[in-house]
Amino acid sequence: MRHIPRKRFGQHFLADAGIVDAIVDAINPQLGQVMVEIGPGLAALTQPLSQRLPHLTVIELDRDLAVRLRSHPKLTVIESDVLKVDFAELASAGASKLRVVGNLPYNISTPILFHLLDFVDVVEDQHFMLQKEVVDRMVARPASADYGRLSVMLQWRYAMEMVLFVPPESFNPPPRVDSAVVRMVPHIDATAVDGKLLSEIVRVAFSQRRKLLRHTLGQWLQDKGYGGEFDVQRRAEEVPVAEYLALAASI
Q1: 95 burial level (CB within 10 Å; 0-12, 13-18, 19+)
Q2: pLDDT band at residue 95 under the 50/70/90 scheme
Q3: What is the pTM of this model?
Q4: Looking at the 3D structure of the chain, how many domains does it have?
Q5: Which residue segment(s) compose the domain that 90 sits in?
Q6: Cα–Cα distance measured from residue 213 to residue 234, given in angstroms and rounded to the nearest whole number
Q7: Which of 87, 92, 225, 246 has the most CB within a 10 Å radius?
Q8: Residue in 136, 125, 132, 127 with CA at minimum distance from that of residue 165
């Protein structure tokens, strides 16, 4: 039976065999690794991944797709909203860290990325297909238009690179945007800071990104009674990740 993509789930199913092969090659699954796929859909990635692995856990919200996936002998199917999944529990069931992959729904890709930040310690790496605009923001460098809150929060915990461009015609139905695959590898020695505090600092800093920081973060620091040194005669996009981390660590 043909599955009709559901708009409320942001479903765009990967249909280009060449792109599928390129993604699986980039992931390079190996025997013994514990892999979790988010949003397997019609199993475009699931099938070739399961051919290289003895077992694969998949997280699927769509009930009809979950029923179909349960017929696959190598799969454990978690029928759930990924934002409610405890990845630490999934990791505790295996002997090694998780490798997380998926074609993330465009309408909730950023919340998923922030949810996974809570489980970075149990993750070996992540490979996601996302809207290219989101990937551009994830890997953006300081002093660029794409550099923002997402860049800082993710670069704090991951080394990231775009590994593959994916055009709209690779999907059914084709999205109205370009896509890309990003590789995310957790930093072994990530700076130890309070994540909530860092998130608040970055949120305030980028709340009015065209203004100098003295109008936003400078006022916030003053209200906190901060007595350290931090140059607020810059815009938020001019501050490297390391300086935001140092500021969070000094408060």
Answers
A1: exposed
A2: low
A3: 0.91
A4: 2
A5: 7-186
A6: 6
A7: 87
A8: 132
